[in-house]
Amino acid sequence: MKKFLAMLMGLMLVFSLTACNSPEPAPAPEGEEGAETSDEMPMIGVTIYRFDDNFMSFVRRAIETKASGNAELILNDSQNNQATQNEQVDLMISRGVNALAINLVDPQAAASIISKAQAANLPVIFFNKEPNFADLNSYDQAWYVGTTSSESGIMQGQLAADAWKANPEWDKNGDGKIQYVLLKGEPGHPDAEARTQYVIEELISQGIEVEELELQTGMWDSIKGKELMDAWLAKHGDNIEFVIANNDAMALGAIQSLRAEGYFTGDKYMPVVGVDAIPDALEQIKEGIMLGTVLNDAKNQGAATFDLALNAAKGLDPLTDTDWTLDENKAVRVPYVPITLDNIEVAEEAYN
Length: 352
Ligand code: GAL
Ligand code: CA
Prior knowledge:
Helix content: 40-55%
CATH superfamily of the largest domain: Response regulator
Subcellular location: Cell envelope
CATH class of the largest domain: Alpha Beta
Number of strands: 12
Order of helices and strands: HEHEHEHEHEHEHEHEHEHEHEEH
Bound molecules: beta-D-galactopyranose, calcium ion
Signal peptide: 1-19
Pfam families: Peripla_BP_4
Number of helices: 12
Protein name: D-galactose/methyl-galactoside binding periplasmic protein MglB
CATH architecture of the largest domain: 3-Layer(aba) Sandwich
Shape: elongated
Keywords: Calcium, Metal-binding, Periplasm, Signal, Sugar transport, Transport
Radius of gyration: 22 Å
Structural class: alpha/beta
């Protein structure tokens, strides 16, 4: 019942968002609420895999900021459902959008989105969830905006290794190994897979021995992160020496759980690292609680997504009048930056 209500509310949200735009391809009537309408402005159809993803809400905000006065946006919450997203794409195409900007629910669904775009001769910019290159390469009007996923894992590993070496007392059982627990993002998501692999490879390549106590998916979600950490603390207690999270939301959930167990008071400490550098995580770093994170630059990823979509919507080369560059995989890759207390202003600047 709860689920049904949530679904209904989600549908209503999509409806009310799209309802403030013209229902048909015909030019929107003047004086509509919410949407910035002009006959000259191109219309860009955007989907976000789910609106309640913390990091994606910052990417969404960056797209909206860039769009203001430059394009009419149709924004859709795909509610973590690929079938819903496919319908949203069909609807946007029928309403006459000039370009699509798609944050996939399922990275494997790129091919079906591409075939819809291709049939309508529309450009499509995928962002945040990287499609297979074979899919992207099957259509000359398809591009990707994101990051080099492995980079975030390597940086997180470096950050963890440096701190571990500087704090020998963190090796609570004195066996020279890090007994760690790892909160993984969504399985199959290129960021989650790469971060999970590379953070550990980096620790090992720094000469640190590791022992995995737990590795489970918290689906990028703070509440799930807390629940997993609760269970792991109940099971392993003080044997846990390090908490590695694929993103900050899950790291923050783990911190909540740790606080409830008395960590971060007196000399009871647990190093926790995340990825994204969302403002809530930066607060925890400033308070000396969270060890560090890796900046996932929402502002620039949103900006690049919009720039490419706007150019393509106008029939221009997607890089026209921008500083972005495409790699050999038709992707703009925004760099990550490791963040600790020492350079926290870099992250604050990126999220202001
Ligand atoms: C990642 C980000 C996660 C989550 C995910 C959604 O890049 O680090 O926090 O937002 O994208 O696809
Ligand atoms: Ca140890």
